[in-house]
């Protein structure tokens, strides 16, 4: 079970599998893209622009994360009588290719590209040694990550709790491979480590004066000085509040585990 730590509304989700990361830039959903619509790159000022990252949880880890989310929901100063008595299950149940539930859950964290026209800061990304990764780094599905989030109760188009994405630490990285339109076939297979001595002999004189192609400069390693949680938050206007529930009621709600996992 992942170990997680909490500090007020800040939370660290640890050692989970990244799913469908879109944090190299902002994206928005385009209903005209593909057969059923899909997320496409966009400008951070576009309507619906956001950074987003889903992640995989087993039941134990999902219950662990649900507890502070439920606590924030029940104790929110924005809470009024239009809110549900308990926090609805904030995760999706994972299903396999046959549509059968796997017993795992999928969580999601996002950050809007702007708030009322004011740009947000792209979520910071670090390697396992806390070195900051380059801005064009492409996180991949299946990589193991720690995720720093802010737990944010909301009352817009209903009520619930969102996880605002602040920063990501990559612990185990699966290298990015651009998608190919081709299937695998029998035949030629390129081996970058093999040497073609005959070809080298024939073209040595042609390329004798050629300059080698410089490799991309390695990113400068640095230890982040700023708290990755320092993300400006523009909160919605305060609504009529109710008194926070008692500790006994809160414990009872959390132990209930989202009404038996959203059944």
How would you describe the overall organization of this protein?
The protein is an alpha+beta fold and 263 residues long. The chain has a single domain (5-179, 216-262), classed as OB fold (Dihydrolipoamide Acetyltransferase, E2P) (Beta Barrel). It contains 4 helices and 11 strands. The chain has helices at 59-74, 197-203, 247-255, 257-262; strands at residues 5-7, 10-30, 38-41, 50-57, 92-95, 101-112, 114-115, 118-119, 124-126, 144-154, 160-172. Strands 1, 2, 3, 4, 5, 6, 9, 10 and 11 form a 9-stranded mixed beta sheet that branches. α1 packs antiparallel against α3. The protein starts with a strand and ends with a helix.
Task: Explain the layout of strands and helices.
Elements: E1 5-7, E2 10-30, E3 38-41, E4 50-57, H1 59-74, E5 92-95, E6 101-112, E7 114-115, E8 118-119, E9 124-126, E10 144-154, E11 160-172, H2 197-203, H3 247-255, H4 257-262
Parallel strand pairs: 9-11
Antiparallel strand pairs: 1-2, 2-3, 2-4, 2-10, 4-6, 5-6, 7-8, 10-11
Helix pairs in contact: 1-3
Brief overview:
The chain has 263 residues and is of the alpha+beta class.
């Amino acid at each position: 079970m992942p170990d997680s730590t909490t500090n007020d509304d800040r939370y660290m989700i640890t050692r989970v599998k990244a799913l469908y990361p879109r944090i190299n830039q902002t994206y928005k959903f385009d209903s005209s893209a593909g057969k059923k619509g899909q997320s496409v790159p966009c400008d951070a000022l576009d309507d619906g622009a956001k950074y987003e990252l889903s992640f995989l949880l087993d039941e134990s880890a999902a219950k662990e994360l649900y507890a502070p989310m439920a606590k924030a929901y029940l104790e929110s100063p924005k809470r009024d009588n239009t809110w549900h008595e308990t926090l609805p299950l904030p995760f999706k149940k994972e299903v396999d290719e046959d549509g059968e539930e796997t017993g795992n859950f999928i969580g999601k964290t996002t950050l809007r590209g702007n708030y009322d026209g004011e740009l947000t800061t792209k979520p910071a990304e670090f390697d396992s040694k806390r070195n900051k990764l380059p801005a064009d780094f492409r996180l991949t599905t299946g990589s193991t990550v720690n995720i720093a989030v802010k737990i944010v109760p909301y009352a817009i188009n209903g009520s619930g709790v969102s996880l605002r994405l602040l920063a990501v630490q990559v612990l185990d990285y699966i290298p990015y491979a651009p998608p190919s339109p081709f299937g695998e076939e029998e035949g030629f297979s390129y081996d970058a480590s093999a040497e073609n001595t005959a070809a080298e002999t024939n073209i040595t004189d042609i390329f004798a004066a050629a300059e080698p192609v410089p490799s991309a400069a390695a990113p400068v390693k640095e230890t982040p000085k700023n708290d990755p949680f320092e993300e400006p938050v523009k909160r919605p206007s305060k609504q009529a509040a109710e008194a926070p529930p008692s500790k006994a009621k809160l414990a009872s709600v959390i132990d209930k585990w989202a009404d038996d996992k959203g059944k």
